[in-house]
Amino acid sequence: MIDARASPATLAQQAAVPSSTNLAINTDEIMQWIIDLRDPSKREFALLELSKKRDSVPDLPLWLWHSFGTMSALLQEVVAIYPAIMPANLTAAQSNRVCNALALMQCVASHRETRGPFLHAHIPLYLYPFLHTTKVSRSFEYLRLTSLGVIGALVKTDDKEQLLVVINFLLSTEIIPLCLRIMEQGTELSKTVATFILQKILLDDTGLLYICQTYERFSHVAMILGKMVMKLTREPSVRLLKHVVRCYSRLSDNPSLTLDARVAQGGAGQNVKVRAQQALKQCLPDQLKDLTFKNCLKEDPSTMNWLRQLLTNLEIDGQVLHDEELLPK
Prior knowledge:
The protein has helices spanning 8-16, 27-36, 40-53, 60-66, 70-80, 82-85, 92-110, 112-120, 128-131, 138-155, 160-171, 175-185, 188-203, 205-211, 215-234, 238-251, 276-283, 294-299, 301-313, and strands at 258-265, 268-275. β1 and β2 form a beta hairpin. By secondary structure, it is mostly helical. Its main location: cytoplasm. InterPro entries: ARM-like (IPR011989), CNOT9 (IPR007216). It is found in: Cytoplasm, P-body.
């Protein structure tokens, strides 16, 4: 059962690989399954059973990371699927098996003591081929969703030092364009996790400065967020709207932030500075200013608070700010 209050990373895990939190813990049994991961003939069953236990065994990430050959076995499962994604002939059974391996990777990525080593081993890069896939079948969707869940687990930390390491790593890879594509084309749940990852990157000053380093990066992010708003007018989602508004709000936070833009002048290009707030104000969808999302905003006052902050930052006096039902209590 999917918990609607859970974080996007957890939602991805729950949707793709359901766990059983109420099962009794038998340490000897779990240790044997971890050992069985090294045996190809026993690995599939061990992956299934361990993935069911991942939420009920707090030390499982430590046992997985520090046990001999375990992470190599999980990587073998990931790499073994590559031939099935290009050309796209991934079966449901293959998808379920690799998603169980990815769920255990997410378990490792989410733990404070194993997050750093997991990242330093560059294991997330092995998942990027899955994020590149575009086939819309359930097998591929679960594969993308569980892979996003691993990245989401990395950024879901309150430790600022760890988060900075994670964000610096992600910014050195292609994660932002991959997330933007999924935000534009994915299912609601995939969009939610991808937008959550972008949001976490933006909330860090390093990530915000990276996005706003050039007008092209900024405008690409703003364009995708705008397309998502248009789609949300047809298919409302309180959860997804919350992350979209939070991304917009963060882009509006710094009044002194400028973008490097290149404009044509006299047959040659010239670099000019453009204020991020001004650029955002010009492209902000009208649906965030009027009462299009009134019902969603009534359900989630925190999203209304972020939207109010966004419009205030941009000096926009939108209709949504004056509706009696949406005024601060």
